[in-house]
Amino acid sequence: MYQYNDNDQTLINERVTQFRGQTERYLKGELGEDEFRALRLMNGLYIQTHAPMLRVAGPYGLLSSRQLRMIAHVSRKYDKGYAHITTRQNIQFNWPELKNVPDILEDLASVQMHAIQTSGNCLRNTTTDHLAGVCTDEIEDPRPYCEIIRQWTILHPEFAYLPRKFKIAVSGSKQDRAATQLHDIGLHLIKNDAGEIGFKVLVGGGLGRTPVIGKVIRPFLEKKHLLSYLEAIVRVYNLNGRRDNKYKARIKILVRESGIENMTEWVEAEWQQIKQDMEVSDARYSEMKNHFAPHPYETNANQDSSFKTHLAQDKNFVTWVKHNVIDHKIPGYRAVFVSLKAPAIAPGDITEKQLDDVAEMADQYSFGEIRTTHRQNLVLADVKQANLFSLWQKLSALSLATPNIGTATDMICCPGLDFCALANASSINIAKEINEALDDIDYLHDIGDLKINMSGCMNGCAHQSVGHIGILGVDKKGVEWYQLTLGGSSENDAALGQRLGPAVAKDQITKAITTILEVYIKHRNEQEIFLDTVNRVGITPFKQAVY
Amino acid sequence: MKIIKDKQIIEDNWTHIADDAELTNGNITVSLSRWNHEDLNNHQGKVGIRLLPADKVEDITDELNKIPLIVLEFPIFTDGRSFSHARLLRSRFNYKGEIRAIGSYMPDQVFYLSRVGVNAFQLEKPEELAVALSTMNDFTVKYQQSTN
Ligand code: SF4
What ipTM did this prediction achieve? Predict the structure, then answer.
């Protein structure tokens, strides 16, 4: 993975010093509330219902075991002994004290981590496929490009006060696991007819209040123009995006109001002016690719026979392998999901002990690297098949082996009323309740592939509009209600869910979900997953059963 | 009044003339609309121009060599359009004169502003000049090419 050089390290150290000064000035009353707010947000610091919340960047979801141990340390020393994985591959602490935040950032900086631009109206953490570099359908590893983009975004002097937040995602594989169609800019590595690899560039996608699927602004961009094209888009947005209404300020609204044709024309015109001066050289790319060179994989890893033996002997192991383990491009290796969706746990939460132990397992089994996923789980991406059984046993002992990846209880869920000042409704409790209702593992596996996403308000942090089932907390005269949508997707077939009907009351929501699942089971064709059934039969049968 | 110019705190004698005020003698700045609609040729003293975030730098690029001072006015510190204006004035249109930030912005924005080509800073709270000056040294490392 990318290792900081002296410059990178100096930059984040200087950032800590800068923020320490700003915090001191604020605490002394020299910096106003609004001013400090903007500055702290650009260091990932929110003031929430109960305490500040600190969001630390997980650059494109890749962490080292050393970094994971530091997260454990921070959660022990400054928080309540756990951390939370977000839907944008970042890490959140829910209970730090404001006065400690500079110290936390200093500790994080010692392992090449920071919280720069994890919030605020600026260029945010770039996300990518959690299976980058190991999946079987990859055109090219997106991570070197992500790191180049990361460096371009960090402290970009011109784009720190954009109309609104700005998110970029990169996908390097055929199947889009990075939800690139739902980002302000989505980049797809593709191969053109001449066999050259470049980017398809999408613009104006996004979730939140007005979910929109991104539009293609350039079908093929040569790699050397990556940064100039991004700069052109963001400059056009900075100068022309709406600033009169924060709900209309995202680039998707600019694209909608001006039309993709005009937007394309402006961006291309801007780009022509800067493309010569901003080329990324081949040398820079190859230097960056070296940071992400393949691990020293064993060539005979697939000769192992113990894996087969264990599969034959242990049914629970088989179930776990079926759901939480996936293929790897190197024979004899697998990528393993560490499920952070055990029953009765808030989705995405992980304790300091679990963090330390996963770091240990990463060192032992997976070249010391861990990935965070946008569905709020972790991945150990490079495990030899011979080690899967002992890894499974260790994960099981830590409640990190619930065999539910991709199923109904692998829900994504925002903090909701429990932590978020903006929430209309609780989400974590509902997730737990649904989890309990689906605790029969055979039933869960029979239902199969299902993505349930639940957000506590319109801001949609848990991407409910692209959940196969979306649940949105709404407030009706101070009472919590839930709006359901069906048929959303964030993958290649990206689509926004359709509203099922009026919101349902809090004590009816779990019942509504189980009813929806019953309807699916009744209508599905053999092997058909939930999403396909919804698309085939439409929402009417579901509606009739729920209301 | 004191301002920062080229990393020094200096005494400044420019007057920023509001749209509804009479012109005064000496060095003055006027808004873009006043610049466009008023004959300022007979003014005794230099005349600079003030741009608001919604103004377009392209509207003044023909006359840039006549303009000794371009003021970027911040009605609110969160409006980042002026950052692009400064960058374009310097990099694309090669403007060599003074670019000054005035209005509602934070000393903490001075570093980025100087990176995009602003070289003079007039603050709402003059007591913050020293902080503003010190923020220019916040970072010794940068990832992006910009004006400096
Ligand atoms: S969706 Fe709403 S309630 Fe949930 S975290 Fe986001 S802002 Fe808070």
Answer: 0.97
